Amino acid sequence: MSRTFYVTTPIYYANAEPHIGHTYTTVVADTLVRWRRLCGEDVFSVSGTDEHGEKMVEAAAKRGLDPAVFTATISESFQRIWAELGIAPSRFVRTTDPAHKRNVQEILQRVYDAGWIELREYEGLYCVGCERFLTERDLVNGLCRDHERPPEPRREVNYFFLMSREFAWLRRMIEEGADFIRPERYRNEALAMLRDESGLGDLSISRPKTRLEWGIELPFDRDHVCYVWFDALISYLTGAGYPDDPKFEARWASAEHLIGKDILKPHAVFWPIMLKAIGLEPPRHLRVHGYWNVDDRKVSKSLGNMVSPLAMRAKYGFESFRHYLLREMSFGLDANFSEATLVERVNADLANNLGNLVSRTLNLVDRFCGGTIPATRPLPPGALAVAEHELRQAAGSAADAVDTHVRAVEPHRALEAIFGLVSQVNRFVDLSEPWKAAKDPARASSVGPALAVSCEALRVIALLLAAFLPEAAQKIVERLGVPDAIRTAQLPKDARSWSQLPVGATVHKGDALFPRLEPLPETGGTSA
Fold first, then answer.
1. Which of 217, 261, 387, 486 is the most buried (most CB within 10 A)?
2. Which comes out higher in pLDDT, residue 209 or 521?
3. Is-catalytic flag, 22?
């Protein structure tokens, strides 16, 4: 197994501040990074902003700003908001960065010299929102299916990247590489595109300056600027240190892209062929998730139904929102957002299950063990001893399951495994009944050992949750008297181990880890 892990979010369009869609992908990337770092891997992550193209000029004009000023403001908001939410990619790439511009122009010149690019006249339907020409299959009732606006008929002379000559190669590569595009439904969708080439053809990679000046100039024709997608995809190379960072080769060999399904075509078709023309291998994995919908419509800046991560943080706390995003969406499928279901999920998982377990366990330790971690001793033969054995086995199984699901980019299933363990620990506490056993001379000796088991299980749960709910996990280990447990952990090994808590460590009850939220009526949407 490679000990290097390189993961990217999309290079987000810098035409408005982040919404729930951006937040979901970025939180998934952050979760993968945190987990693999705890596993001792050399981790590198990249996010960024895509700042060129006609859509940016249009958005800037609506605000009465120069595109350079507008995109700088939006890019700064992405970086500031991620930092406020405790998310820190290793590198944030702006497509206006000088280093990125040099990479784009060097690659353009190289593929041009190698005969991959030619000048043609083209006529078709152009969507400013998509920044590309559309075919009839992209339209619903004459409107772009993603932006719900009619495309504009255009005729102009552009430079074309001759990608169609490699469609047969790409089909074979995807067919033979079963794990390249996941989940499988998107692999099948990419293959369907390639089997029906009438919807693809060669790729227009320039825009004449007579129409658009805001972009990177073609090095071989200063009267044209680079098409925004050809520009933005190269950000993944720039972010990894292309061309001269000594770690670039190892990073690129382990590259995984996280994207939404709306940008499958550029990543599954354009990008691998671009990389072939450059002389590089495709990324190791392309991981594709579905849409977040509000009132049965995809969340979109252009549709005006965004959900702000800062608004959700102010109202519910970001860890609650983060858990909802990771737990509610099955990676690859669409999910419907509503504040009512968010509240239900937080109350069920975080307040009633996890929060209750932390509170009751530490309160019982304070009450019956003098507020310190009790010694671990064998429990008397019987149902409680059997339950302890099963709990130890479940903890080890949960650690393995979380590791497997994180590596497969299935955060919802990883959280299912963790919260299944939380429920099992709660059942163990119910079975051990320290509040009754302490009053029964025949059972009193089981109180300390049973609570030691519960505390040990809490330590395991905190380690497993550290990548998903980093603040809550840290609070748990601090309350258990082992504040460095996560920082020094080696996962998943340390989550499989038992009897790691120091006997006599002082526990701290603290406030409710996740206070219950007032239920909301189910409306299907949000005001945020």
1. 486
2. 209
3. yes
**pLDDT over threshold 80, residue 304:** no
As given in the structure block, the two tokens for residue 365 are: 């330790």
Q: Is the pLDDT of residue 193 over 60?
A: yes
Percentage of the chain with pLDDT > 70? 96
Give φ, ψ of 349 to 5 degrees.
-85, -50
pLDDT at 134: 77
Q: What is the average pLDDT score of the chain? A: 93
> Of the candidates 465, 503, 186, 524, which has an alpha carbon nearest to the alpha carbon of residue 340?
524
CA distances for 104 relative to 74, 110, 152, 247, 395, angstroms = 22, 10, 28, 20, 49
- Residue 500, C-beta contacts closer than 8 angstroms, at least 6 positions apart: 456, 459, 485, 494
In the chain the first and final C-alpha atoms are separated, in Å, by 43
Identify the active-site residue in 101, 276, 285, 301: 301
CB contact at 8 A, 287 and 259? yes
The residues that bridge with 83 in the sheet, in sequence order, are none
CB contact at 8 A, 59 and 88? no
Considering the candidates 39, 144, 226, 369, report the single residue annotated as catalytic: 144
CA–CA gap between residue 387 and residue 264 (Å, rounded): 47
* Max Cα-Cα span within the chain: 92
Q: What is the pLDDT of residues 327-359, one digit of tens each?
A: 999 999 999 999 999 999 999 999 999 999 999
The yes-or-no answer on residue 301 being catalytic is yes
Confidence of residue 300 (pLDDT cuts 50, 70, 90): low
- Listed in sequence order, the residues at least 6 apart from 366 whose beta carbon sits closer than 8 Å to its beta carbon are 507, 509
Query: Is 144 noted as a catalytic residue in this protein?
Result: yes
Helix (H, G, I), strand (E, B) or coil at 298: strand
- At residue 527, the pLDDT reads 44
pLDDT at site 478: 98
Q: Are 455 and 364 in contact (CB under 8 A)?
A: no
Helix (H) or strand (E) run with residue 67 in it: helix 67-84
Q: Which long-range contacts (CB under 8 A, 24 or more apart) does 137-145 make?
A: 137/199, 138/199
Q: Residues 13-52: pLDDT tens digits?
A: 998 899 999 999 999 999 999 999 999 999 999 999 999 9
- Is the distance from CB of 453 to CB of 498 less than 8 angstroms? no
Q: Which of 100, 224, 298, 475 is catalytic?
A: 298
Annotate 131-155 with DSSP letters as a single string: TEEE-GGGEETTEETTT-SPPEEEE
Measured between alpha carbons, how far is 46 from 88 in angstroms, rounded to an integer?
Answer: 9
| Short-list 151, 25, 16, CA closest to 74 | 16
Annotation marks residue 127 as catalytic: yes
Active-site entry in 127, 226, 369, 455:
127
